[in-house]
Amino acid sequence: MTQSITINNWIQQAPTLPLVDVRTPAEFAQGHIPGALNVPLFSNEERVQVGTTYKQVSREEAILLGFELTGTKWAGFIRQCLQIAPGKRIAVHCWRGGMRSGAMAWALALYGFEVYAITGGYKAYRRWAHGRFEQPYNLRILGGMTGSGKTRLLQYMQLQGQQVVDLEHLAQHQGSAYGTMNRMIQPTQEQFENDLAWQLKDVNSENLLWLEDECQMIGRRSIPQPLWLRMRAALLIDLQVPAVQRVATLLQDYGHLDPGFLAEATERIHKRLGPVQTKQAIEAIHEGRMADFIRIVLVYYDKAYRKALSLRPAENVFELDLSGVDMATDSEQLTAFAATLC
């Protein structure tokens, strides 16, 4: 049995209704619905063949070619779907909810699955995702100079049940020249947006939603414009953490990284850091004087932060002194302070 289902209806059932994406591996890698599993009807090359036949010959010839290419694969598709949904209740989608998902739904239903085909396919999810960025969230932005421990504090607050979306985690980047930490690989822009929307769907707009102060670009990924504009208009709490503690925090986070990576990243900001400071910073890296390296580059990052902060309306910025050490105490103080701003 096959039934059509909207993307909103599937999202409501997502925990109990496995979703299969029948697009090609390349399409899936470019962007997919969080939680979906890829059971590609065609390989990347096969999809090109079918598409070319559709455009240059006819729809009918493209359908025939599609069946020729998949003829020996159907048993494998069904076995994969049985592993994904042993209860034989499953949802499927392709790009627009067309022939590919229709063919898979037909085969699975014939085998005995209860199949739900997503109306509009992946494009419907993309429209839904863009709608999440337009919502009027009750935002609070956590700011502070580099090393203030903003990310750690927000992660602690999230564990305590507060609403937090970690943009840097979603973007797989810490938001500076050193942001990949020499290990993180950023998702595509499309997937970043998909994952961000998926987290925003669970936000209660009546409660505060905490986001870290970010440039619109986090590495090579861009915060969607509607959400970014709301972030810029929201109240910001500017953490005031002692410089000694900031250096200690950054030393813990970055001091163990590969010197070659740190030197290369420092070279990338040499125009903003200046030739003398760049030379001094790289020398400190190679000589193992990591605290000195951090102090040198902080001059640039502190200046950049103050400039960005100055572009916000002064009445939307509130300073708060915190230790940057005791997450429990800092979280309590931040939460209490935020309550006075509501």
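Second entry:
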Amino acid sequence: MKREIITTDDGSTTIHLPEWNESYHSKHGAIQEAYHVFIKNGFSLFGGRPISILEIGFGTGLNCFITYLEAKKKNQTIDYVGVEAYPIPMEEALQMNYAHTIEADESAVFEQIHQHHWEEKNTISQDFTLTKRKQFFQDINDENAFDLIYFDAFGFRVQPELWSEAIFAQMFRALKSNGVLVTYACRTSIKNAMLSAGFSVEKLPGAPGKREMLRATKAVAKL
């Protein structure tokens, strides 16, 4: 499938798949979408305490990179796991301009994120570990392992099977009690799939270009 590097509206790059008319990030702004959905409405909920994060769709590494940057500000300990069935080539990763666009002097860390071996726990910094797993989402079998899930799969329009009740049941099992899942998507069928899997679900204002997004919580029943 043909792949193109494009520049989104906030000046940051992403990968576009013309055959699907689908991009790894929003054309309205890759970086601003990532911060809005995953940092503002997910990561920020946990204050500065140590947490474990599962990313569904590791892709360009943008979400991992900005999580590292935010955790560094707070000296927050993060155990990050990124799942990706089809890792992007290194030459594409190096064309992403995130470190430059964010004005963070961390380009070496972004490269390190992509250079580290898959299927191994890698130390990015004293407080940040990264494990990249080459895995189909349907094969995830973690239980009570994560505080937060970044659900960043390709959209329902092109891969509806990744937004099913069965997938969200796996996500529910993977989360610890009171764990949170955030995603850029907000479609009634997706919300219903989350509810059927056992989540409490809320709609939130979306990133620029999208009206709404979803946040799901593995709420513990009060006795």
